[in-house]
Amino acid sequence: MTNYLKIAEKAKPECINCAQEIFEAISKNSTTKSLDKVKKQMDNLNTFLYTYFLITYNKDLTNIHDDFTLKIKNVHDKSSLKNIANQLIEAYSNSLLDEMEFSRNEIIDNALKIINKEYATGLNLEDLAKKLHLSKNYLCSLFKEETGFTFCQYLNTLKTNKAKKLLLEDKKTLEYISYECGFSSQPHFTMTFKKYTGKTPREYKMSLVSQ
Hints:
With 211 residues, this protein is mainly α. It folds into 2 domains: 2-99; 106-209, Arc Repressor Mutant, subunit A, CATH 1.10.10.60. Helices cover 74% and strands 0% of the residues. Helix 1 (2-10) runs antiparallel to helix 2 (16-26). It is globular and about 60 Å long.
């Protein structure tokens, strides 16, 4: 259970890779376990994350819990469970990002509205500070205090999540997605995407196809 706690504590958009790596470390001996035992391990993680997010963040994520309970039940091979494990952690993590669209602080509330609207325009911290008539240093400090993210962490996580949705569409090229999500170049898109997901955009798309 201690290991599940470590995963839950790291299941945040800015450090989701750490959470997924911890689970992989826990599961490294899964090849010697039966499919039912691996499924049980996954069910335990799902239930633990649901309970942790309910108690810690006051978020009732019954829909995520029930969705993955069904997915785990319907899997018939252990290789597919690894992908589902990463999706499971990602789903709980992204629920925190969704909540960031609203803040108790009016300044940060306005900042988030601007970012969510202009994320693909090359917006940077200095631009945002000017729009809000604040100093760059003050906004940087306040943003981190109120959201738990640095400006760059929030912006890049938002862009990465937008890119994930576009990667689901077969006809969208990586060059198009890079431009549409506001990355300065395709190499920058690939580097950032891998940093925040652990996979390149191509690898991520292939993992979706193989499911």
